[in-house]
TrEMBL record:
CDD domains: NAT_SF
Class of the enzyme per the UniProt entry, highest EC level: transferase
Record Gene3D superfamilies: 3.40.630.30
Domain N-acetyltransferase: 3-169
Protein name as it appears in the record: GNAT family N-acetyltransferase
PROSITE patterns linked: GNAT
EC number: 2.3.-.-
Signal peptide: none
Annotated InterPro entries: Acyl_CoA_acyltransferase, Bact_Acetyltransf, GNAT_dom
Top-rank taxon: Bacteria
Keywords assigned by UniProt, alphabetized: Acyltransferase, Transferase
Molecular function GO terms recorded: acyltransferase activity
Organism listed in the record: Deinococcus taklimakanensis
Length: 179
């Protein structure tokens, strides 16, 4: 069964909250936001975040009419970095993995970024523990341009974060700084 993908709206807040909380709990090492931090947010603040805007949309993957995965694409708003957009908050419920939700969400997110006027690159970060997610991003053309050590802390555990990018036009190679 191919998942249905659509942009989520304020009407999707209950389902979005449930999926987001579930993926934060099941993959706590994958996200900056903790399940407790998200659970403390009001439905109104989640609705404001979820409302589609010119610079930010959240896609949902639906299997059998149920929301099973999420992905947000947000364009930078400051003038010097408006050529960039970011992918974040990617998650698929454990029971829906292997059904193509991640691939369908990434395809929708990349397609959306490509239609944003002036956006030439799409960026994301993935923690070192998220091997399947990193492979997903690589299948969609993302390349690692750097790794930030000690990017996240989970208790006493230090995690590195791989920074990835997908050129959408313009420069095809990331600039690197050589000491």
């Amino acid at each position: 069964m191919v998942p249905d993908i659509r942009i989520l709206t304020e009407d999707d807040v209950p389902a979005y909250r449930a999926v987001r909380l579930a993926v934060l709990q099941s993959d706590s090492l994958a996200f900056v936001t903790t399940a407790a931090e998200f659970a403390a947010r009001t439905p109104q603040s989640v609705a404001e975040q979820l409302a589609p805007r010119e610079d930010s949309v959240t896609f949902g993957a639906f299997v059998g009419g149920e929301l099973t995965g999420i992905l947000t694409v947000a364009r930078e708003t400051r003038s010097r970095i408006r050529h960039r957009a970011n992918v974040f908050g990617v998650g698929v419920l454990e029971g829906a993995r292997g059904l193509g939700c991640g691939d369908a969400l990434m395809a929708a997110g990349v397609a959306h970024a490509r239609q944003l006027e002036g956006v030439t690159s799409l960026h994301l970060g993935v923690t070192e523990t998220q091997h399947a997610a990193r492979r997903l991003y690589e299948r969609h053309g993302f390349r690692t341009w750097g790794t930030q050590p000690d990017a996240l802390r989970h208790g006493e555990r230090s995690l590195a974060e791989h920074w990835m990018w997908l050129p959408l036009g313009g420069n095809e190679e990331p600039h690197t700084v050589v000491p």
